[in-house]
Each structure stands twice: as C-alpha cells, then as structure tokens.
Amino acid sequence: MTHPHLTPYDSVLATIGWTPLIRLGRIGAGIRTPIFGKAEYANPGGSVKDRIALTIIEGAEQRGELKPGGTIVEGTSGNTGVGLAIAASLKGYRCIFTMPDKMSQEKVRLLKAYGAEVVITPTAVPPDHPDHYVVKAKQIVQQTPGAVLADQFYNQANPEAHYLTTGPEIWEQTAGKVTHFVAGAGTGGTVSGVGKYLKERNAKVRVVAGDPIGSLYTHYHRTRTMGEGHPYKVEGIGGDKIPSTIWFDQIDEFRQVPDRTSLTMARRLAREEGILVGGSAGLNVWLAIEIARELDDPAAMVVTILCDTGERYLSKVFSDEWMQENQMLEAPRVTVEQLLERRPATAPALVSVAPAAAVRQALNLMTTYGVSQIPVIENGDSVGALVEGTLMTRALSQPALLDRPVREVMEQPFPEVDAGAPADRVGSMLTRESPATLVRKDGKLIGIVSRYDLLQQLIGTR
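User: That's the sequence. What structure does it adopt?
Assistant: Structure tokens below.
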C-alpha cells in the first residue's frame, strides 16, 4: 500500500473520499496525452454517490427536516441509494428507494442487503407520469410521516459535495496539471461541482460532459430547448428531464456516446487495465480517450471519473448473453481456420498436385475427393490452379492433354488468406476466375476454402 491509513476511523463514513487517481496506460496506449481515472468505486459503497449521500443527509439533519427515526426516500439508479443506505444504517433511519426496472438485479439486492425497501417502476414512461421513479418517490414522501426526499436531482448539496471534495482532490493529485475534466451527467452533480472548482483554480480547464444517446441533456445544452429522448441501456447517467443540479454554465461541451461503445469500453477496462467498472465509467473513459487523441499533447492531462464498481453489472454488461440479446455485442466471428475445422473429414484439408503431375492425375484427385479445384504447389508455395470445369472442357476437346504436365494447363494461383482472418473476408476474394482461396498459417499452406464451404457456413449446416 503506497499510502497506508495511519490511524483508525470512527466509522465507515469517514473513509468516503480521497480515492486513488490511476493512469490508464494500456487503454490509452499510443496516445501522447495522459489519461487518468479517479477510482470512485473505491468508496465504501462502491461508487461516487457516497460523497453526495452523506452531504444530503447531514444537510437535512441540520435544517431539522430529518429527525431521529425518520425515513429517507429517493428515486435512484442504485448508487445514491447505496450511499444513503450506508449512512442511514449508522444513523438509524429507514430508507425507501424507487428504481427504474432497467437497473440490474445486483443493485436491487444490494440495497435490500443494507436494509432498504425498494419499489421498482417502469423505465419507459415520461418524466411526469405517476409511475416515473422520481414522481413515485415524491408520492411516497407525501404518504409517509417523518419522511424526507433526498432529491438528488434538485438538491444543491449534490454538486456542492463535489465542489468541496472531489474537485480539490483532483487538483491536488494532479499538482494542478489537469487541463480537461470528463464526466458523464446523470444528476450532473459530479461534472458541475468538480468543473466549478477546477475552473476557479484555472479558468483554462475545459469541462466536458458525457451523455448517452437518447438522453435530452446534449440537445438542451446546445439549444436550451427540450428535445425528444428515448430509452438507452447505460445506467446512472443521462436523463429525460433537466435537473437543477446540472450547472450548465460550468460545462463547456456535451458529447454523446452510443450504448454499445460505452459498454464495450467497460469490458475492455476490466480486461486491459484490471479495473472492473460499470457502463457509465466506460462512457467516461471512451470520451476521455477521444479527447486525449484530439489533443495529441503530452503537456495536457485528461482526468475522468470511474463511477462505480462493475460487480453491480455482472448479469448485464459483463454477461455475453445479455450483451448479445441487447445488440450490444457482435456475435463471435468465425475465423477461416475454424471454417476449415468444421469441414467433414472426408478429404485432406489441402488436396494439391505438383507442376510435373499429369492432368489425368489431377482429374483423378478431383473425382476421388469430390473437389472442384486443386492448387498446384511447388516448394510449399502456390504456383498455379486447376478448376474442374475448365480442365474437363479442354481435356474432352484435346484428349492428349490428359498425359501432359499440369504446368502446361494451369491457371493463375488462387488468392491467399491468413488462417486467423474472419471467414466472411473470403467472400470478397472469391470470383469467377478464382473460385477458391488458399489458407496460410505460420507461413504454411494448410487448406483451401471454396464457395461451397462458405455456403455451408451461411446456412448453418456446419
């Protein structure tokens, strides 16, 4: 441990904040501008939302709104609820949370593990609908004596928490060298609070908010009018309404990122950086990489937020089945070598003849193994090709050719492809003149792929 905790803490709440700042060296390989991620998943509740949860509760206590034995209610994508539930468990409060049904089951179970009650609401409803998760939370407050609404979308304690903690931490951890800050906007608290602090320290710092396609934020930032949103898969960021916790005057630019791009980047972070985070962090990192690549300046520094732990998305982002069902992951591509392996073992992988072999021998091989084309091989390389239809036509009209060497009648060699290439690449290589493609692996010819092989793959008989 580089920085040991030298003294014990009074409670887990005291461990919130001062999360590590980690250089993303492998994911940003080849990019001259350094990229750093602030590991908010290292907070005790596993997300950046721990910061605002404690601030919101303490603010309600100080105002006298939240009294001993009271109830905390919130509409949450899960992470704010976890932060609130942790603090509530120590302070003796009851928690009721409303969540859209697109959220992972891990989040629901986690909230219940902390003793919270969870009400699931439909995702695909407008923001003013009685079943919208934020509206439902307000209804519960009205029906529950002693209840307060955490109201993270409109509670200014949200961005203030980041102005007071996250922003100063980033400034100190980078020794004031940060030039660009990137964060997805859900409530907007992180990007707004951090952005305000960094701009106060250096007015040249550029603040970029990430937004999933389907969210209204980007359109609103550009036009100050409400557009039309649609559902998206990334959890915890974007929105179908404009919260007051987004300080648009502190944000220089909004950029949108497709779901597939965000979720794929989250998976890459686990496999390339050893960092297991959710889709919102994937969006942040992808955007940070895009900006760093545009800057191409080793003196610049891009910092982004690694919002929450990926353990909450094992059944979604990190499930191949879920990703494929939701068109977020392409089906694994069959390689040319796999295509060869699927061929029935009724003939050698590569039937060939030498240039000196007789035409009669070549036709016998075609008949014996049921192939329509044969490469002519010399010293391990293809020097020509024989195609059944053309060869038979010539032999029928000139029977004497049957005893001539194939070098006298062979055509141009078939094209070649690497064994590791996608099988569909062969399709573009097959023509009337070249009805087959030779396959090389580690410098050696190992097989041949014909139109028939591709057809069998296409109709799924192999």
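The chain is about 35% helix and 15% strand.
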